[in-house]
UniProtKB/TrEMBL annotation:
Classification lineage: Bacteria, Pseudomonadati, Pseudomonadota, Betaproteobacteria, Burkholderiales
Protein's recorded name: Formate dehydrogenase (Quinone-dependent) catalytic subunit
Organism of this sequence: Chitinasiproducens palmae
Annotated ranges, domain Molybdopterin dinucleotide-binding: 688-803
Cofactor: [4Fe-4S] cluster
GO cellular component: periplasmic space
Range of residues in the leader sequence: none
Record Pfam families: Molybdopterin, Molydop_binding
Family assignment from sequence similarity: Belongs to the prokaryotic molybdopterin-containing oxidoreductase family.
UniProt-listed Gene3D superfamilies: 2.40.40.20, 3.40.50.740, Dimethylsulfoxide Reductase, domain 2 (3.40.228.10)
Ranges for domain Molybdopterin oxidoreductase: 2-375
Keyword entries, A-Z: 4Fe-4S, Iron, Iron-sulfur, Metal-binding, Oxidoreductase, Periplasm, Selenocysteine, Signal
GO molecular function per UniProt: 4 iron, 4 sulfur cluster binding; electron transfer activity; formate dehydrogenase (cytochrome-c-553) activity; formate dehydrogenase (NAD+) activity; molybdenum ion binding; molybdopterin cofactor binding
Compartment(s): Periplasm
Amino acid sequence: MTNHWVDIKNADVILVMGGNAAEAHPCGFKWVTEAKAHNKARLLVVDPRFTRTASVADYYAPIRTGSDIVFLGGVINYLLTNDKIQHEYVRNYTDMPFIVREDFAFEDGLYSGYDAEKRAYADKSSWDYERGDDGYVKVDMTLQHPRCVYNLMKAHYARYTPEMVEKACGTPKEKFLTVCEMLASTASPDRAGTILYALGWTHHSIGSQIIRTGAMVQLLLGNIGIAGGGMNALRGHSNIQGLTDLGLMSNLLPGYMTLPMEGEQDYEAYIDKRAQKPLRPNQLSYWKNYRAFYVSMMKSWWGKAATAENNWGYDYLPKLDKSYDLLQAIELMAQGKMNGYILQGFNPLAAAPNKAKVGAGLAKLKFLVVMDPLATESSEFWRNFGEHNDVDPTKIQTEVFRLPTTCFAEEQGSLTNSSRWLQWHWQGAEPPYEARSDIEIMSGLFLRMRKAYQAEGGKYPDPIVNLDWPYIEPESPLPEELAKEFNGRALADITDPKDPTKILAKKGEQLPSFALLRDDGTTSSGCWIYCGAWTQAGNQMARRDNADPSGLGQTLNWSWAWPVNRRILYNRASAAPDGRPFDARRKLIGWNGSAWSGFDVPDYKVDEPPENGMGPFIMNPEGVARFFSRDGLNEGPFPEHYEPFETPIGHNPLHPNNAQVTSSPVARVFADDRADFGTAAEFPHTATTYRLTEHFHYWTKHARLNAIIQPEQFVEIGEDLAREVGVVAGDRVRVSSKRGHIEAVALVTKRIKPLMIEGKKVQTVGVPIHWGFKGIAKPGYIANTLTPSVGDGNSQTPEFKSFLVKVEKA
Ligand SMILES: Nc1nc2c(c(=O)[nH]1)N[C@H]1C(S)=C(S)[C@@H](COP(=O)(O)OP(=O)(O)OC[C@H]3O[C@@H](n4cnc5c(=O)[nH]c(N)nc54)[C@H](O)[C@@H]3O)O[C@H]1N2
Ligand SMILES: Nc1nc2c(c(=O)[nH]1)N[C@H]1C(S)=C(S)[C@@H](COP(=O)(O)OP(=O)(O)OC[C@H]3O[C@@H](n4cnc5c(=O)[nH]c(N)nc54)[C@H](O)[C@@H]3O)O[C@H]1N2
Ligand SMILES: [Mo]
């Protein structure tokens, strides 16, 4: 989230699109209710299904799965053509006046630089701004230049008309326009609108671009950086925010630093590429501090072994030849190129797409380690469960080791929620039987591996044998020790660069903020954005003072938020260029003549006078927010609609004559998966998968109460489709895709209606995801038997939300 849960109460308009907050985030959803009750907020829901969120909305509009870019591109077009934008904001705080290179082009669905063989934009050099003689980017503040971002963007989205929205999304034109009007009402500086989204946007082959299009809408409306605004990703597992913060994605390092690629053997070049210089005069470009964050992290990992001479251990870091995301891992297994796999709290046989491929891949491993409190489908993938898992164990070579772990309530530690708040929690129960914590198991594995490397050497033992392991009890580091480590400490006295006699932190002290991190090896910090969470004053994550002087829910003494306890990112943008808050009633910060102050930690240099013209988006080298993503996403600088890989209409309504761009030209597809895609001729119905309030993924089917209230797999189909296929409520149906079939109870509902797409009737089938063959709920099929193995071209997230099936009476 750019903002936070409580802040939702400050919104005037709330758009829930690509998520179902009332069911998947029922506690957080109370802030929507607060906004409605106390702020007369209007709630808009755009979803293929009439959900429980929709049931309390002021306005609901249906949409075909996977067509959100057409809808949101249509909103952009509406806002630009009807001049419903926050002018002062857009002109000063975005790249609209920036001039783009002359050789940048977009034609029939493709940007300049595409290489069809590689299925990638091999040459992105034209996706850039034009530079002046002074080296800075050229701008035209009058927005007249034909190649300024404003004019390019206007031309790009002119094709996204209300008629196109109706044709491609199936959303009736009047409904679409009503949503546009309600959103447009927040273009004025005294109105705020927020967008809440989740997996209904991410689970697509174009998911990242859908989210970017939403962010562009918010920028046009001046809704980023203000109370009651923002782009708010409602995250999934209770600590999934913490997972990405700490760099557990295969390409990440902690704090959103990135692992080097194979071609980046040179340390200085690695840093240079990431520590970008400002593109405009007087801008900050905060990532210029990358070196300090990197060096401090390496000191925290390798201690004395990380030195200036060895580039702080740069050679210890793996250099990636490719992304090692989930789809990649399964592909490598399926090809027999993976020996072993560790599942730590992960059940891919149930959770990953195309169960048949996952099962075949697991069967080719030599060993599989499962760290989990429960017996999962994945830990028993090798057993025959009849029609639900029809395998022959004698043909499976994989040796499976199960290491029972504790569950979160059986240990203490911190969880980072969607608001970026790190909240400390305390142990609530003793672990059962021989269960051990994840920390203890991982430490045990590490210490044994280190011993083996120490004894036997091996090809390159240095990264393992040199790892710093300073814990009181090496077999079981304490959560407190780890938390202090990711915060970081001074390894020497840290002085003020402006006044070397002034000591900011004494050697050995916990650091108060990443502003003190140094690139000379005198500081350590395991995760720079978490620096400030455990300071000399103690554990900031355990704070529980909910005093709120702002009345806006800015409880700065409740837990601790990254970065530096800032609650609303980009909050400098809540004030006009001259430093006065755009909306006095919702003041976050303002310029008081000598400093920025107010109800949040300024996302800005505290003593930077407004007249210096520093932009509010200090993490971008532009200093402003980007409509034109020059080095961002792989599909191109402006989001364009591409169809799901299994499309019910078979072509891209925006480019009907170019089959190359029917679906995303850069999505994650492996050659051998192409044969597993079905067509509408064979599989005429569009399916989407989702969760229910009554279950949490695949574990609550092990709990009796949950198993009683949602005992078995069902699928939701509309009355119209039910009539078409001759099914009544309660019948058993067979749902098949190119990958396999499941059987389920039919739930016939008014909540899903057929949509007319380019004159063709498209039926949506809803498939909840929660069942399988382990646990005490009724044994059943795994929903992911049906889903295709294809992913987003940036995040590689699978396309779980839009694929083709056929529904028949069983
Ligand atoms: N009770 C419960 N709560 C949970 C979870 C759980 O298992 N159980 N899981 C947690 C996790 S890990 C996550 S990631 C979150 C997920 O949170 P959500 O994303 O809110 O949950 P989903 O149910 O996957 O899907 C959301 C909605 O997207 C809609 N949708 C599908 N396709 C599209 C589309 O193309 N466009 C639009 N606009 N909408 C579409 C679906 O109809 C559905 O209503 O929930 C978390 N909360
Ligand atoms: N078709 C389809 N597929 C989907 C989705 C969808 O919407 N549609 N949603 C996707 C999403 S968003 C998600 S997040 C995934 C979820 O997929 P998973 O993360 O694989 O599912 P969970 O059942 O939440 O479980 C993980 C396991 O963690 C274990 N566990 C709990 N606490 C601990 C602990 O402290 N330590 C350890 N080691 N283990 C623990 C649980 O017992 C459980 O078996 O599914 C994805 N798959
Ligand atoms: Mo999730």
